[in-house]
UniProtKB/TrEMBL annotation:
Keywords: Glycosyltransferase, Transferase. InterPro entries: Glyco_trans_9, LPS_LOS_Heptosyltrfase. This is Glycosyltransferase family 9 protein. CDD domains: GT9_LPS_heptosyltransferase (cd03789).
Length: 360
């Protein structure tokens, strides 16, 4: 079979960190389809550092956003016109981006068939994501596959990790943390991120304290808890460290990191990552670290829809009982003791020595 010609593809996912991380499987699909495909992304300044770190991205273009002054919008339009992209793939469609792609003269413009912004696209894919019938990253992969078929390219099937850090990088990060926090390299390190960045409902600090205490009590080798935090969340993480230490649960605060990429690569040192449905949880998923996520039970934000993109055997998810739609976001209905037992029973502590769980 004759190999199709390489394509210049612009992908847009210009919203939050977790959403961008769930685009990496689609980016891997596009880049792997042809060795010379040029994959560019349009992203906000916040996620640009991770876009530069993504192995599936060749070019990062900054989106100044809806509120940017007119001259910045004109400069972006001029840049896209000059780039002469073959295709535009918008994973989350907005009128401004649709109009931008049309004015830039990109001949193939594809997006989900939602909202009136779809009028700017000449290829529209019905997905009905609000029904939450698939994971978000699979919806993204479906769009990438449709684009590749339209471009006449084969559709590859990349597998986790979608952020394949070299083993040496993880070793360096573990050694670094060991030096900074005096962590034993033979003891499991469980990272816990109690903040949510305001993007999703989450467990309370008290629930996370109960959870960490119960997990430690249910495992043969209690983990060392490393508390991580985002902007403006350090005080919450420090509060949780102090609460756990007062209960004789060994916990420390992760040292500050110089950049978002530095923070993200540090998550590669985790044996397990525990959080609500946040950007850091999805970074850990892209790194194929074992994850434990907490989600509401409402249809638009189910554990299925927003699951991490790590291997199926490396993720667990919990949400409130689905028996009452009016309480779908009431995270206090999650039985923390039962969750801790389920984690210990179902999932051996994934360390280098593969310690096994036990009930105490």
């Amino acid at each position: 079979m004759t190999q199709s010609r390489p394509q210049r593809i612009l992908v847009v996912r210009n919203d939050k960190l977790g959403d961008f991380m769930l685009a990496w499987p689609a980016l891997a699909c596009l880049k792997s389809a042809h060795p010379d495909n040029h994959v560019a992304v349009l992203v906000p300044t916040y996620t640009a550092p991770l876009a530069h770190a993504c192995p599936w991205i060749d070019e990062v273009i900054l989106d100044p956003g809806d509120a940017a002054p007119r001259h910045q919008q004109k400069n972006l339009l001029a840049q896209l016109r000059a780039e002469k992209f073959d295709a535009l793939l918008t994973l989350f469609s907005t009128p401004r981006i649709g109009w931008l792609g049309w004015r830039a003269g990109i001949s193939l413009r594809m997006a989900p068939a939602t909202k009136w912004a779809q009028v700017f696209y000449n290829f529209r894919i019905k997905q009905r994501r609000s029904r939450s019938q698939k994971p978000e990253y699979v919806y993204n992969q479906d769009l990438a596959a449709a684009l590749l078929r339209t471009l006449g390219q084969n559709v590859p099937a990349p597998t986790p990790p979608y952020w394949p850090l070299p083993d040496a990088t993880r070793d360096i990060q573990r050694q670094r943390l060991s030096n900074e926090l005096l962590l034993s390299p033979t003891r499991p390190w469980w990272f816990l991120h109690p903040g949510s960045g305001g993007s999703a409902v989450n467990l309370s600090v008290a629930q996370y304290a109960d959870l960490a205490q119960a997990i430690s009590a249910n495992l043969c080798v209690p983990p060392k808890w490393v508390l991580t935090y985002g902007p403006s969340e350090e005080a919450v993480a420090q509060q949780l460290v102090e609460t756990l230490n007062a209960r004789d649960v060994d916990a420390v605060l992760m040292p500050p990191r110089a950049s978002l990429t530095d923070f993200a690569e540090t998550l590669g040192a985790a044996d397990v990552f525990v959080a609500g449905s946040t950007g850091p949880l999805h970074i850990a998923g892209a790194l194929n670290r074992p994850t434990i996520g907490f989600y509401p039970a409402k249809r638009s934000a189910t554990p299925l829809r927003w699951q991490t993109c790590n291997a199926e055997t490396r993720r667990l998810a919990f949400s409130p009982p689905a028996d009452d739609a009016s309480s779908a976001s009431d995270m206090s209905r999650i039985d923390i003791a039962a969750v801790a037992r389920q984690i210990a029973d179902a999932w051996p502590t994934p360390t280098a020595t593969e310690e096994t769980p036990c009930n105490r």
